[in-house]
Design goal:
- 28% of the residues lie in helices and 30% in strands.
- Helix 3 runs parallel beside helix 7, helix 4 packs parallel to helix 5 and helix 8 crosses helix 9.
- It folds into 3 domains: 122 residues, Pleckstrin-homology domain (PH domain)/Phosphotyrosine-binding domain (PTB) (PH-domain like), CATH 2.30.29.30; 140 residues, Probable inorganic polyphosphate/atp-NAD kinase, domain 1 (Rossmann fold, 3-Layer(aba) Sandwich); 233 residues, Tumour Suppressor Smad4 (Sandwich), CATH 2.60.200.
- About 6% of the residues have low confidence.
- It is α+β, with helices and mostly antiparallel strands and 529 residues long.
- It is built from 14 helices and 21 strands.
- The strands form 4 sheets. Strands 12, 13, 14, 15, 16, 17, 18, 19, 20 and 21 form a 10-stranded antiparallel beta sheet that branches. A 4-stranded antiparallel beta sheet has the order 1-2-3-4, covered by helices on one side.
- It binds ligand 1PW, adenosine-5'-diphosphate and calcium ion.
- The site of the ligand CCCCCCCCCCCCC/C=C/[C@@H](O)[C@H](COP(=O)(O)O)NC(C)=O has 26 residues, from helix 5, helix 8 and helix 12.
Length: 529
């Protein structure tokens, strides 16, 4: 590896230990040199033990003058020694940096260095800050939306206690909006927010709140650029602002599946260092009318019914999903319909290849470019127009139809609904669970929580697809009113689905779209901007 030029190097003190601190463009290292005398057979050689530590510059959160330690904590000998040193060398700076703890979990650590003079201390702060200012992907100004009612209703506290102090430490300025109603954040982003002044938007909440913010931002971007997102063939303009997620919801699958954990501090640190992860966005239409976007789960049958039932138990917090899960499992409903899908090319891997998508994943990086895609789409159109040969059509009775655009990993299911799904490959994994016995379905569900393959059942099939359509066997009432909006939550559909009558509500389930119920059952789904 090429050796980098040293930008600054000094002998400083960390507590009472002398350390050699070296900074180059990508790394800050400090080496403690401990001199100890070994007495053996009358000879006293001086041996040097070197403890070396360091941090990549891109993982330094901030550097600044150290706060004076006025506490009288000098109980032990080493504390006394450290105190004496800090009095002798009062000019000190503190480097805050990312420390990796458990798997995927990040914490903020501080290292304080005492300098022989004020000039040296200021020089260190200046040189490190200069290097940090070269990291242009870091946000300086953020717009934060907090859903105070998400998850266990701890969003506000989580933000104030765990996240805001870190943003302050990293000198990130924030405008914070605590939402007062559902869709407050979406409407504010759509119509009011002055987005030019921010480098990103932060969502403090769950998957539903993320979805709100995504819709606000995407709609605003299209409006600003004169694109009509209701046109099914409209080429959407990508958003220039990134969305950071501070998990404070019930499932937090979008955060868990992208970061690897649902921990507010880890997420705040990823935001500060400017990490980003592209993700697939599915567009959902009903008869060519735009309904919603989805980034995680589009689920019909089981997950639709769980969500419909759980909405009336919101007061229970995240436990509502457990209760509704058991209830839905016991009702053991199945739904008839036709699923048609356009498979992804073989080069996109397959849902059972056991490859996990990670940051910098090569499948996502080498997905077909827009140009290839346009070509592909014209071929696809030709084929379908002639004989429909590239579309697969499956008619059947399904307990669940799940489209996972990402793994949908969450604390309940650490591998997720489709463990090998890619975050940004332009495909979704379509999982069809056909009518089976309760015991078989239980076995299938259980495999979401352990290492066994949940697709290894005769009644389950999974396809990696670019587009799909669903038509329920039983006609839904024709109503174009209220499209693109959530249905009124009267609970009507849920109550009806418990009965065995023969109206459409009984025969059909609903789609769970990232935690929101879709108002329509017949849908067309396509991926990619
Ligand atoms: C025998 C035990 C069986 C346990 C099976 C566990 C499987 C769990 C798989 C969960 C996959 C969740 C996908 C994420 C969906 C979210 O978008 C949505 C909304 O999340 P939010 O409430 O907004 O955080 N949550 C649900 C439960 O539908
Ligand atoms: N102030 C608010 N009052 C009521 N509902 C809200 C508010 N802010 C956001 N919401 C809505 O709450 C729903 C659930 O939010 P989310 O943060 O995902 O929590 P959870 O994971 O518990 O479902 C979302 O659909 C969102 O639109
Ligand atoms: Ca995907």
């Amino acid at each position: 590896m090429e050796k980098q030029a040293i930008l600054l190097s000094s002998k400083l003190f960390q507590k009472h230990r002398q350390v050699e601190v070296v900074l180059n463009r990508s790394f800050l290292a400090w080496k403690e040199i401990e001199k100890s005398r070994k007495r053996s057979s009358g000879i006293s050689p001086i041996s040097e033990r070197v403890h070396s530590r360091g941090v990549q510059v891109c993982e330094i959160l901030a550097v600044g003058k150290a706060e004076e330690d006025n506490q009288d904590n000098t109980k032990t000998r080493s504390q006394k020694k450290a105190k004496q040193h800090s009095q002798r060398y009062p000019h000190a700076f503190t480097v805050s940096y990312v420390r990796r703890t458990r798997l995927h979990q990040w914490r903020c650590a501080d290292a304080t260095f005492h300098c022989a003079s004020q000039e040296l201390c200021e020089q260190w702060i200046k040189v490190i800050n200069e290097q940090l200012s070269l990291l242009t992907n870091r946000p300086k100004s953020l717009l934060v939306y907090i859903n105070p009612y998400g998850g266990k209703q701890r969003g506000k506290r989580i933000y104030e206690q765990k996240v805001a102090p870190l943003f302050r430490r990293a000198c990130i300025s924030t405008d914070v909006i605590v939402t007062e109603r559902a869709n407050h954040a979406r409407d504010h982003l759509k119509m009011e927010a002055n987005l030019d002044q921010y480098d990103g938007v932060v969502c403090v909440g769950g998957d539903g709140m993320f979805s709100e913010i995504l819709h606000g931002l995407v709609t605003r971007t299209q409006t600003d650029r004169g694109v009509d997102q209701n046109q099914p063939d409209a080429k959407l303009v990508p958003c220039s602002l990134r969305i950071g997620i501070i998990p404070a919801g019930s499932t937090d699958c979008i955060c868990f599946a992208t970061v690897g954990t649902n921990d507010p501090v880890t997420s705040a640190l990823h935001i500060i260092v400017g990490d980003s992860q592209p993700m697939d966005v599915c567009s959902v239409h009903h008869h060519d009318i735009f309904l919603r976007y989805s980034v995680s789960l589009l689920g019909y049958g089981f997950y639709g019914d769980v969500l419909t039932d759980s909405e009336r138990k919101r007061w229970l917090g995240p436990a509502r999903y457990d209760l509704s899960g058991v209830k839905t499992f016991l009702s053991h409903n199945y739904y008839e319909g036709t699923v048609s899908f356009l498979p992804a090319e073989d080069t996109m891997g397959n849902p059972r290849d056991k490859l996990q998508c990670r940051s910098g994943c090569h499948v996502c990086q080498h997905k077909p470019s827009l140009k290839d895609k346009q070509w592909e789409m014209s071929v696809e159109k030709e084929k379908t127009d002639k004989d429909g040969s590239s579309w697969n059509v499956i008619r059947g009775k399904f307990i669940a139809i799940n489209a996972a655009s990402m793994s949908c990993a969450c604390p309940r299911s650490p591998k997720g609904l489709s463990p090998s799904a890619h975050l940004a490959d332009g495909t979704t994994d379509l999982i069809l669970v056909r009518q089976c016995s309760r015991l078989d379905f239980f076995r299938h569900l259980l495999r979401h929580t352990n290492k066994d393959d949940q697709f290894d059942h005769s009644f389950v099939e999974v396809h990696r697809v670019r587009r799909f359509r669903f038509h329920p066997q039983h006609q839904e009432p024709v109503s174009l009113e209220g499209l693109s909006e959530s249905p009124k939550k009267t609970g009507f559909q849920a109550i009806c689905s418990q009965q065995t009558g023969c109206n459409y509500s009984t025969a059909n389930s609903s789609w769970n779209c990232d935690g929101e119920i879709l108002p329509q059952v017949a849908i067309q789904v396509s991926l990619g901007f």
